[in-house]
Amino acid sequence: MMKNQVTLRYDLVIFDWDGTLMDSTQRIISSMQNSAASLLLEIPTASQIKSTIGLSMQKVVSELFPDASPAVHNKVRDFYREEYINGNDTPTELFSSVVGLLEQLEMHSVLLSVATGKGRQGLKRVLDSVGWSNKFEHSICGDEAESKPNPEMLLQLLKQTGVKNHRALMVGDSIHDIAMAEAAGVDAVGVTTGANSRAELEVHKPIAIFDDIAHLSKVVFER
Predict the structure, then answer these.
(1) Are 49 and 29 in contact (CB under 8 A)?
(2) DSSP element (H, E) containing 32
(3) Inside any domain, residue 155
(4) Which residue range(s) make up the domain with 48?
(5) CATH number at residue 80
(6) Could you give the CA distance from residue 113 to residue 54 in angstroms, rounded to a whole number?
(7) What is the pTM (predicted TM-score) of this model?
(8) Boundary of a domain, candidates 87, 105, 137
(9) DSSP 197-212
(10) Partners of 22 in the beta sheet?
(11) Number of other CB atoms surrounding residue 44 within 10 Å
(12) The CATH number of the domain where 130 resides is what?
């Protein structure tokens, strides 16, 4: 039986990581709260922390602890990194639909990239942990460009891949992902599996919002 013929609407799909491909939101929240408690800082609420997911770590800490000194900000980042990697046993796994979706995109020669607020070391660690060290030919991290929602991450990826903005798609769970895409002139799809609700994501006019990332194929392929 022949495969269904499909036409690609997009040549490049760019994914956020936390809350989009990996179910890590609760670990992020608890790690940040535990770090604040260890440093005797006011503990941010889950809602406050979720509002910063997707930003670079430097920006996250500045927004959550605006009155703390730069030295304290550095301590928070160090405590958080240690807590997230070694001190916190909250499970973090790929969402169940992710592997199948990426295999489907790869089968049709869609370029896959990552744009994440994680630092390069952090992204490498999680990619290695799921056996994906060579999964994404292109990626850009929070310590390599201006933080979301600045469009620099996407503009760099477009330059690296040679893909025009109208042929690229950003996929993310955060308003920062969708706003970044809007600023770069790139279409975006929101997923409700992480930081922000459907109503919050709708503000920046993504072309679609899904409760399960498996449905992404509906907008990438024309059948």
Answers:
(1) yes
(2) helix 25-38
(3) yes
(4) 25-87
(5) 1.10.150
(6) 15
(7) 0.91
(8) 87
(9) -HHHHHTT--SEEESS
(10) 18, 94
(11) 20
(12) 3.40.50.1000
DSSP 87-126: I-----EE-TTHHHHHHHHHHTT-EEEEE-SS-HHHHHHH
Strand 187-191 relative to strand 138-140, pairing = unpaired
Distance, in Å, from the CA atom of 10 to the CA atom of 113, rounded to the nearest integer, reads 13
Buried b (16+ CB within 10 A) or exposed e, 139-173: bbbbbebebbbbbbbbbbbbeebebeeebbbbbbb
pLDDT in tens, 102-150: 999 999 999 999 999 999 999 999 999 999 999 998 999 999 999 999 9
Mean pLDDT over the full length of the chain: 94
Is residue 2 situated within a structural domain? no
- Contacts with 87 (C-beta within 8 Å, 6 or more apart), sequence order: 31, 34
End-to-end alpha carbon distance in the chain: 16
The DSSP string of 52-75 is TTTS-HHHHHHHHSTTS-HHHHHH
Let me know whether 79 and 110 are in one domain: no
Question: Among 74, 84, 82, which residue's Cα sits nearest to residue 49?
Answer: 84
Same domain membership, residue 118 and residue 56: no
How many domains is the chain built from?
2
SS3 content of the chain, % helix, strand, coil (to 5): 45, 15, 40
For residue 197, give both structure tokens: 């609700």
Do 153 and 185 share a structural domain?
A: yes
